[in-house]
Structures are given as C-alpha cells and as structure tokens.
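Quick one: structure tokens for this chain, please?
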Amino acid sequence: MMVLSRKILRLTLFILVSLFFLAAGLAINILFFWSEKELTRMRARAAMSWSRTLCRIMGIRVSREGDLKELPRTITMSNHISYLDILVLGSLRPSLFVSRHDVKAWPLLGLLARVAGTVFIDRESTRSAWAALDEVEKRIESGSTVVVFPEGTTTDGMGVKEFKGFFFMVPIRMKIAVQPLSIRYNSSNSGGDCPVAWYGGMTLLPHLWNLIGIERIDALVYYNPAITSI
C-alpha cells in the first residue's frame, strides 16, 4: 500500500509539474522569439528547473565526481542508460539535448522536449542528420551546453556500445572541447540492484510506473577530463 501511494503521489506531481513547465516553455518561446540566443538560454534554464524539480519528486539524488572543471565552449558526450539521464544531466547545469526523432511522439514528454529546444535526429535520414548537426552548432554558438549520447541508444549500463561518430564533427568543425561524462545508478531496492536501465524492447509507461515506486535512486555523474583536441 505504501508503494502504491508513493506511485500515485509521484505520478500526479510528475504530470502537474510537467504541465506547469510546458506552459512556461510555451510562454518562453513566445516572449523570446526575437532573439535566438536569449531563447536558447531561457529554454535551457527552464529545462534545468524542470529536471531538478522532477529529481526531487522521484527521489533521485545526483552527485558529481571527477574533473569538475567545466569549460565554457564544449559539447558534452555521455553514456546512455535511461530516459532518467535527461533529468540527471539536466539538473546539473542549463543544457539542451539531442534525441532520436521518435521521442516527439511520446505522451507529454515529447511535447516538452520540443518546447525545450531539443534537437531531433532521424539517423536513417542523411538530410535530418546534417540539419541536426547545424542545429547543435547554433545552440553552442548561443552559449548553451549541448548533450549528445553517442551510442545512439540506451544500454543496460554494464558496458558501452560503439559510438556513432557523426556528432564528433561538431568539435572538429567548431574547434571546441568534448566533455565526456559517465552515469551510474544505484537504488534503495533489491540490495542495490537498480532497475533504472531502459533498453531493448522495454515499454515506456510500464517501466516508468515501476520506477516511480522506488524510494530512492542515486545517480553518480563522473566528469572525465575534457578532450581539448580531436
């Protein structure tokens, strides 16, 4: 009964908070349409507030280790375990993300991603890939942190898949650094075995329903040394 009550409360708060930030995001897009730089900056700040709020609601405690020095002009590359990666990384600093194109169709979250300025890519389309590359460069030029998951998909967290090399063209063309991050999860359930990983053929809503019942999730983000030349 306690777990069910936690799930219902968290799901209710998750929806209400997301609807509030959706409205705020729409307002930001209207008010700052005149300046790409200001629009990008405000979108990233709103996304950070949304991420931090949802982390608190869902019992996610984020910690950082490693080389915490952050360079002003970088593209961030991270391993990819779950949709929670967006909340975890988004809670650390104002950030915009690159996501696969089918996320647009996700209920509520897809609309939030569009309003937040997410760059969508269809990896099966060369035209879409080049357009996404241009958008990423525009975001960085506007002073935003852009996060890319170079594996191109989520994994079970036990290893890292081969990177897709396309977005490494950004630091080459812009002559900027790459900030590599590593995410690791642990939880209060099952003696530390955390069911956060969402990969393969897992369905989103049943996985999320199970996830919000976990009392506490610890997310460690390890900052690897920045790569300043490629």
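The beta strands are 60-66, 74-78, 95-100, 119-121, 145-148, 177-187, 217-223.
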